Amino acid sequence: MKKRILCAVLSLALFLCLLPGTVIKAAPTEEIKKKIEEPENLYAQSAVLIDADSGRILFAKNGQEERPMASTTKIMTCILALELGNMEEKAVASAQAAAQPEVKLGVKEGQEFYLKDLLYSLMLESHNDTAVVIAEHISGSTEKFAEKMNEKAEKLGCNHTYFITPNGLDAQDEIGIHHTTAEDLAVIMKYCIMDSPKAEEFLAITQTKEYQFSDCSGNGNYHCSNHNAFLNMMDGAISGKTGFTADAGYCYVGALSDGERTFIVALLACGWPNNKGYKWSDTRKLMTYGLENYQYRDVWKEIEESKVVVENGVTEDSFPGEKLEIETRVKGKSCMLLLREDEQVEVTCEMPDKLKAPVQKGNVVGKVIYTLGNEKVAEYEIVTDETIAERSFSWSCSFIFQNYFLNEDRKIKINQ
């Protein structure tokens, strides 16, 4: 009797564990309860810090406010040129490109440059005329290139971003102004350094300290110095782009890698002249906050393998009316997340009480969801571990013939 009661209790516990919406979470210890102070007194009117691996926002101040972003725009121009262009192609400067305002390379109408050289001019010195040459070479016009910029932003989920120019100069059309948000800008940088097939080339360009080139005819001697001072400010700095216009103020987006951790900071409206250094102060403060407070933890919760009833199912040894159950398992063995000490992950199991035959081995029948607050941070499939066929009329006829007329032992068992 005691064994039966114990089995019933264990079965009930496992059943409750696997009910849809069931939450499993560990009680926080006293060590974890200590309060983590977030960055304060930032100069930027909009700022975010994200985990470059998952894209999760670790800190935000007005992260979804739409603002002009100045030359941080050029990270999108650069990545599109890398993905759509050939670095050895020759790009011809137009009259429109030659007429761009400072900061500029000083191209002349009809002058030819290799696309590769123009990308260093774009990202190191932030030349506005170079951006136009690149855009016109890739798409035929700055308007067509802006369409590609907006298409890419939409694919990345940047729904609060609108590009008009390839260089980030303040602009407005019938739809609105040239703008983004700090969150969207960080997402675009994540794509440039982590997800794009040209991420390695993007990083190589943005990490270059000095670069020299001539035009395709060998005329001129152009020298570019990287204006991203953050590369020399903190160990692990790997990329970044500055920006400034009268409407946007000082802007910045940058990335830092420390072992397995990579952080991205995006700042908009971070002061106006004479406060050029505010962006560096804010970037250091946010990166330091990330480095000091976020570590990877394996938050994997073991979910016991369980059985699910399969209706109308049959196996080689089953009998009509026999209750059949199928084994399931969770696809996964670890769940590494970048977390603060005081952040607690909740685990929810979602799986039906019954399945309908036929069921194939490996069928997805549920999921285990890891959430942090209201945000889903990981998900793992629950799959079947065996195959069960469907009981059909032909199977029933075959069963009766094989087991009632031909197999005396099973005939006796059935009659019993």
TrEMBL record:
Protein known as: serine-type D-Ala-D-Ala carboxypeptidase
InterPro entries xrefs: Beta-lactam/transpept-like, Peniciliin-bd_prot_C_sf, Peptidase_S11, Peptidase_S11_C, Peptidase_S11_C_sf, Peptidase_S11_N
Functional pathway: Cell wall biogenesis; peptidoglycan biosynthesis
Pfam family for this entry, one: PBP5_C
Residues annotated as catalytic: S71 (acyl-ester intermediate), K74 (proton acceptor), S126
SUPFAM superfamilies xref list: beta-lactamase/transpeptidase-like (SSF56601), Penicillin-binding protein associated domain (SSF69189)
Positions annotated to bind substrate: K241
Species of the source: Mediterraneibacter hominis
Function recorded in the entry: Removes C-terminal D-alanyl residues from sugar-peptide cell wall precursors.
